[in-house]
Amino acid sequence: MRYAVLDRGDSLSQGLAEKLHRLAADKGFTHDQDEPEIVISIGGDGTLLHAFHTFLHKLDHVSFIGVHTGHLGFYADWQANELEDLVDRMATAEPFLVRYPLAKIELDTSDGKTDYLALNEFTLKGVNATLVAQLNVNDELFEMFRGDGIVISTPTGSTAYNKSVGGAVLHPSIPSLQIAEIASINNRVYRTLGSSIVLPEHHHVDIISKKEQRLLLAIDHINIEREDIHAIRCSVSDLRVRFARYRPFPFWNRVREAFLGYDVR
Ligand code: NAP
Ligand code: MN
Asked: What is the pTM of this model?
């Protein structure tokens, strides 16, 4: 088995990465940072986001595994003291592969069009002033937005920024995008729905910039600032990210353990 490792850079995560290399060598695995079959992220959900964007162009051949060195993660579900168990299972068992939906973001700027993929979400905000944008759903005017920003999340991203702005938590078996508002202004000119909406596959939302404005775009942890954005189209991508599961950990158990603190295992 060819594997790659990405760690968060702190001493605990680095130490675990070294231990993982030793355990993997004992099992005859090949360390390959360029063409791995398995990518192991050691750190937090943020580390897994880095790993995802590092191997973005190899999603067809790569499965991810997350080990957490802090609190329980949504993508990182193995604990530091379970590393031997994980490597044993990798050597002896076939993983169950789960595939999670991704968001496709098509940016239309003065330089032309660029595509991005997000695992958690795409966020749009104004830099110097409130964001002013028209939202079209499936090519028809939906609303005129004015406010702090918009968060468009994947189902697995629904527990991240989306949840902080009052969005619903969606099960990752529902291929969809959730559009949530951040502090919208509502008056006679600007009127938004107020609640978040969930778009299924094959629907799209266009965000059309309605004035000269400097915008902050965030694709997961990656921030971009531009003042030449014409429009942005978001939809559920045809691509999926694959996670290798060597034991079940149902999504609703993660939600319960991460947010409510009950551990029933
Ligand atoms: P960060 O500021 O370190 O992350 C913010 C927190 O979000 C961390 O606790 C992170 O967990 C957690 N997180 C990431 N993905 C998650 C998921 N799918 N479900 C539940 N929690 C999740 O920055 P980062 O580590 O680079 O992560 C970037 C993410 O931060 C963005 O994708 C966005 O979702 C989130 N964010 C949240 C807010 C907010 O809630 N107000 C604002 C900006 C960004 P770890 O500690 O395990 O990394
Ligand atoms: Mn983080």
From this structure: 0.97
